[in-house]
Amino acid sequence: MIDIIYRIGHFVLITVFSMALGLLFMGIARKIVARIQKRYGPPVYQPYLDVLKLFGKDAITHGFIFDFGAIMALGGVIATLFFIPLGSWQLYSMEGTVILVIYLLAIASLGMAMGTVGSGNPQASVGISRALMQMLGYELPYLVILFALIYRYQTSSVWGLMQAQAGSFLNWNLFAYPLMAAVAFVVLIGMMGKKPFDSMIAPSEIGSGPVVESGGKYLGMLLLQKSITIIIELALYVNLFLGGAENILIFTFKMLIVWVLATMFGSLFPRFRIEDGIKFFWKWPLGIAILQAIYIIT
Amino acid sequence: MLNFLEEWSFFGGSILLILIGLYGVITRKNMIKILISLALMDTGVNLMLVALGYVKAANAPILNSVVQTNTAAFVDPIPQALVLTSIVIGTAVLGLGLALVIKIYDKFSTLDISKIRGLKW
Amino acid sequence: MLTNYIFIPIAAAFIAYILNKRNRKAGAVITALVSAYLLLSLTALYGRWDITQSFNLSLMGYKIDFLLAVNPLSWLFAVMTAAISILIALFSINSQENFKFSSVFNLNFLIIIGSMIGIVFARDFLTLFIFWELMTWTSFYLISAGKKKMAGRAAYRYIILSAGAAYAFLMAAIFIFQQTGSFAFDSAAEFLVANSPAQSIMLLLVISLPFIVKAGIFPLHIWVKDAHGNAPKEFSPFLSGMMLKIGIYGMIVVFYQLSFFKIIENTIAYRGLPLLSYLFALLGAVTIITGTILAIRQEDMKKLVAYSSISQMGYIIIGIAIATPLGFSGSMLHLMNHLIFKSTIFLALAAVIYRTGTTKMYEMGGLIFRMPLTFAAYLTAIIALAGIPPTNGFISKWVIYQALIEKGYLFLAIAAFFGSIASFMYVFKPLSTVFLGQLKPQHQNIKEVPLLMKIPMLILILVIVLFGVFPGIQMNIINQISGYLGIETVNYTLYSIQGANGAWNSLLIFNIFSAGFIIALLLFSFAKKSKLVGLLDTYSSGEYITDAESYHYAYQYYRPFDRLFDNLAAKSLTDFYETLTKNLVRSGEGLRRALAAGKLQNYALYSVLLFVILAAVGWII
Amino acid sequence: MVNLTLIIAIPLLMSFTMPIFKMLNQKLPKVIALLTTAFNLLVLTANFSQIMDSAIIIELGGWQAPLAINLYVGPLALLAAFLINGSAFILSIYNLTQDYKFDDKFYLLFLMITAGASGMVMTGDLFNLFVFIEITSIAAYSLTAFAGRDSYEASFKYLVIGGIGSVFMLLGIGFTYSAVGSLNLAEIAASAGLINPLLLQITALLFLIGVGIEAELFPLNFWVPDLYTEAPTAVSGIMSGAVSAAGIYALARIFFTLFPAQSFLNYLLYLGAITLILGELIAYQQKNIKRMLAYSSLAQMGLIVAVISLGTEGAVRAGLFQLVNHSILKILLFISAGVLISAAGSKNIDDLAGLGSKKKTAAFGFTIAAMGILGVPFLNGFISKFMIISSSLNADQFLLTVLILLAAVIEIAYYLKVVQKLYFEDLKIEVKKTAVITIPVVLLTLMIFGLGIYPQLIADPLEKAAAELINNGSYIMTVLGGM
Fold it and tell me: Mind telling me how many Å the CA of A291 is from chain C's nearest CA?
């Protein structure tokens, strides 16, 4: 019985921590982009204010499916959180978590998609269709990389892959397979919907895409979902390529570095059109990933 | 030489008749000419059949007042019996053919076979 | 004793036909009763693998014996057929009110069930062929009872393809019959193993032809789209649920019972897998890719789901062809799961068609408000199809991935990944265009489907989630099959399967997922109440839009993606077959024009020419 | 033991007294035709068991074998006679519902054609065979002319080709008579007369062309489509069901007794295969339903000739079984097609759309017969197709089997086009009133299902017939031995 309470406590703690960290990262990102564009930009804690404001305002809904979508999105993402080791905190180190995480992220995006399209706004459905197309683009190289890693280390759990890189930083996957790390980095940008690959929430073309209809607490929940997704993807990248970390502080520091690099990298490029985005993902990243995989298999 | 001629004249003649009839059927356009050449082929075959049964210097296979006993040399009677029936058949077919030609003439009002192509492929 | 499972449905078919003439519901009720009887008696048969039945017939100098026997593999397929036919019969009781051919439907449907059980219990080529032909013929009549003109052409193409393959099968079977003196599988297997590898491989490939056609594998999959798309709405679930599986059953028989793998053991291997079975796996991979790309393009929802069945078949073929224990159990799992969620999707679509009357996606929208249960059934089914964790679809795909990764087949894995990720796309398209988005004015007064159509959907939803959480139920029958076929078994517990490197626990995931969901729900309910607003009251960035028609994004949902594959889809395989038949017609035409020109002279000339030619030929010899 | 000659004598008697019956009352000719064919069937069944153990030989006119014309009725002849008289019987039932312009003359010729065909099948003498062939063809020429308009042209073309054929055959008889000195089939087969290879070759070819026209082989069968399309339905039924069967019997009898050498049989094999493929290809794109059925029966005849000429016992048995099945199925097809055409008022397939709902029995008959021909299990076509494939594989004629299967697939293509039009398309034209054909359709369907599910019914006569055809010796022994 105590164990369950301890579990639930740990459960809630991790959720709150990653929400806060995620929002912080979003604030930092806004700051960096502003600095690159020679302006001051909003204070780093701005996302916290936004979330509190949003939960205060009243919102409109378009029926049951709209609410169910928002809840499923946030719920799915929170559930994914517990399969990824954040530093030393690891709730469930079970087999097959790597593939599981990819599919659990899919639940979240499916829930969000269902809710927004349920709102009846055509711009939302256009945004969702673009998101799904782009997902197909970046998911393929990512799975090839995972295929190679699982085959190489003969374990399909994130914890196992992390342990495999223990010892000196030399045998981090970043240095063992630099090409694969680079491809994973590009895919990371795509996954997070950062600048060059953000045609799905293109403000100018389709009125910020899927989130167009959600205001008030719905927008708040979607923001929280965004923040946790950032944390998950970064944590995954750090675990797989930067050898994870003993305690949470180093882990957050590594995530911060990757996040800053990603934002800077992102703010330099204009937006890809959807089919060019897919073509780009399938040309270079997929090619390099396959070469790397062949190298590992043979 | 003589008996060779004698021997082969009948066969040669009938084969020739058949070939002429065949040529007639294949090339003539007029339907009645086709029927005539058909009859020609029939007579050719009948001639050949009768020639088969020929025995030198024997009399016709008919028992009548002149020849009672059957010991005398007869020409082989069987081909002649065959020819009898085949002549009957030939005339029957010819009659039927002419009736059909009349009917076709009513409809197509021409005797030229190449024009009568109501039934294509 | 086994024969009454085959001949009771066939006999009932005629009774159903006669009764249905008088009252339209009688046929479907009889089908439901018969399939219920079948399901009960077949499940009672579980475990007794020794029942065999055979009767022989000496027909004009041929001693032929017909053998029927039960084994785990055939038992599973028989139970699946019976289960899916109950659900469809229940569903069609009142979904066929205004269906012109409902008595023909029930007649043929019952005969198909009987012949399918016959196929599955057959242990020799001739019985298999007889029931196979019976099934092909009756399904031909059923498909052509679908949509007006297109169903006819689809059934026509289907019957020619499967009849050609079936005749090739008959020729190979008779060839073996002449060598071994009997049609039975076992004697054929011994003969094939002993025979020279090249010839027996050729024979086995010809024997597997009808199964490749029926399973819709790559080169011969052209009939699937039209047949499923245009078949009557109640028959599509059966067609793509069960009929495709019979092709897979045939492939398993060819691979294992006719010892195809033993024969090709010593041929050149690629990464430890004989090249021929790798070729089959590659065929499966290509089927996945073509099926997915073409599914994304479709505007007609039934055709879209038909293509998705083709691509899911690809998974099963890959699983079987790589011949590893994990691979085989993965494909058997996926086979059962695919049957379940694919028939749910088709039943949900049939309910939508029953209410709206059209299958074109862009003519519908916003049906969630009018048909919530159908939406729920469709949602669970597509979550399973896309392979998202709490449902059974994920488990079978995960096991197949484990099998692929364990042996390191990169290209097959890429095709499998592509298939499953892209399935999110084509699965979401009907969801958003049919159920979500704007509700069209003409569909305002649509009611939910009657109770009898709801029950099958509810049962199927429960089964999806049940097998999603407890895959152990499926695993014990699959292990018996692997044992029977001589493949090592995969160890498992009620809720977890032992993968290549570590066990997979589905119950745990279900709990965590619901925990996350509850946290989000709490967060949602604490916040302020929100005001319900109509569908048209949305942010349209300044434009003033009144009618729902122009406010619903449905037509060419993934246009950018399709543009990438426009040229590939353009030269689809069907025109290859079309040109083939056109040449056949032109050759016939040419001969006809030349020879039968109606001129009497030519006919007379031909007879003389025949005489002259044959005389010359005789003269030379 | 009723004397078998009655089978030829009674129909001829009845046919020539038909005008008198007509004067007595209008309906009588139809009934008389029905009764005579029924009588024939009774006579055949009476002798059935007796023939099964040993063939019956009847010397006409009391002379001994080599001189007299004798009838040789073995199991093979019995089977063929049953087929001919059976189809005549069913067609005369069908005729009950039809009325023709000069009906007494029609039934006169109808009985004549049955008598001629039965005679062809039973005779043991070569010239007698020629006479019966001529009787049948003359009756056929005149019968086709009954449908008016185009049928004259069809019958004229058939007459000319038939005339040429009879000339060739007469020549053949002349040559054999000159070489052997006797006309009795057994006598010719026994004697060593035909040794000279050139003469043998020429006579074989002459007979091939003479009888080939009746057996509808490739270059000689261009009269078939015109005749079957233009002639009245009953005539095309009797022609495709009975007369072509008699033609094939005669061809087989001549070639297996007089020219048993495999080199001659190969001619038949190649001609049959060409007829099969050509018939199917041309039938595939016919627009007129009767022409399609004509080409299809032409192709099936080619198939039967090809299979029989394989020469092995299994092949002959398969060929004969296919012959029986084909006759039953083709008669049902022609009867149903006849009703469908009179209902739609045109022979074009497209106009038959949707008739399935209106003309139930005719459409049902057509579908069952089509499925029978295509070899659907539990129907008679399936078993004969199975036997054909296994016997041709046995004689390791690999190419022929592939050809047969390809033909079967093409057959499926064009038959199903019609079946789909009947049932699954909506009605285009208003339906005219037509004759009720339930009895013949029911009878034939029973036969199709009966033979399909329980082929043993016909297994025993088939085996004996095939055996009789194959070994010449026993044929010669029974005929000459009796001397």
Answer: 11
Mean pLDDT, contiguous 10-residue spans, chain A (298 residues): 78 86 90 88 88 84 83 87 75 70 82 82 83 86 88 80 76 81 88 80 72 80 88 87 80 89 85 84 88 84
ipTM: 0.84
Mean pLDDT computed over D267-282: 89
Q: What is the pTM of this model?
A: 0.88
d(CA C560, CA A274): 7
User: What's the pLDDT score for residue C496?
Assistant: 73
- The closest alpha carbon to D236, from D247, D246, D220, D225, belongs to D225
**Which C residues in the span 359-378 are in contact with A, Cβ-Cβ below 8 Å?**
366, 368-369
CATH code of B72's domain: 1.10.287.3510
Q: Is C76 in contact with C477 (CB distance < 8 Å)?
A: yes
- What's the pLDDT score for residue C597? 67
pLDDT band at D483 (very low <50, low <70, confident <90, very high): very low
Chain B residues with CB-CB distance to C596 below 8 A: 120-121
Q: Higher-confidence residue: A202 or C451?
A: C451
From the list A81, A107, A147, which residue is nearest C410 (CB)? A147
Cα distances (angstroms) measured from residue B79 to each of A63, B53, B84, D174: 105, 6, 9, 8
pLDDT along chain B (121 residues), means of 10: 68 88 87 91 89 74 68 74 88 91 85 73 52
Give the distance from residue B46's alpha carbon to the nearest chain D alpha carbon, in angstroms.
Answer: 8
Q: Sort out which chain D residues have CB atoms less than 8 A from C164's CB and list them.
A: 405, 409
The tens digit of pLDDT for each residue in C392-415 reads 888 888 888 888 888 878 888 888
Q: Do chains A and D touch (3 or more CB pairs under 8 A)?
A: no
Contact A197, A122 (CB under 8 A): no
Q: By three-state DSSP, how is residue C52 classified?
A: strand
In three-state secondary structure terms, A85 is coil
Do residue C513 and residue A76 have CB atoms under 8 angstroms apart?
Answer: yes
The minimum CA-CA distance between D220 and chain C, rounded to whole Å, is: 6
In a domain? residue B120: no
Instruction: Please name which of D371, D367, D380, D370 lies closest in space to residue D321, comparing C-alpha atoms.
Output: D380
C144 and D420 Cβ atoms separated by less than 8 Å = yes
> Is the Cβ of D417 closer than 8 Å to some Cβ of chain C?
yes
The number of domains in chain B is 1
- What are the two backbone dihedrals, phi and then psi, of residue C67, each rounded to the nearest 5 degrees? -110, 135
Alpha carbon of B44: minimum distance to chain D alpha carbons (Å): 9
Give how far the C-alpha of residue D120 lies from the chain's centroid of Cα atoms, to the nearest Å: 11
Q: Is the dihedral of CA D211, D216, D221, D223 positive or negative?
A: positive
Q: Do chains C and A touch (3 or more CB pairs under 8 A)?
A: yes
Whole-angstrom Cα distance, residue C35 to residue C285? 35
Angle at C298 between CA C295 and CA C300, to 5 degrees: 120
User: Per-domain residue ranges for chain D?
Assistant: 6-481
Which sign does the torsion angle of CA A290, A292, A293, A298 carry? Answer: positive
Note the Cα A107 to chain centre separation in Å: 13
Looking at residue D133, its pLDDT comes to: 92
Average pLDDT (C482-501) is 74
Phi then psi for residue A256, to 5 deg, are: -60, -45
* B121 inside domain: no
What are the tens digits of pLDDT across the range D197-234?
778 888 888 888 888 888 888 788 888 888 888 888 88
Asked if C18 is an interface residue toward chain A (Cβ–Cβ < 8 A), one would say no
- Residue C471 per-residue DSSP state: T
- Full residue range of the structural domain in which residue B35 is found: 2-115
- On whether the CB atoms of residues D252 and D272 are closer than 8 A, the answer is no
Chain B interface mutation, best of D160, D169, D187, D291, highest count of B Cβ atoms under 10 Å: D160
Note the pLDDT of residue D104.
Answer: 80
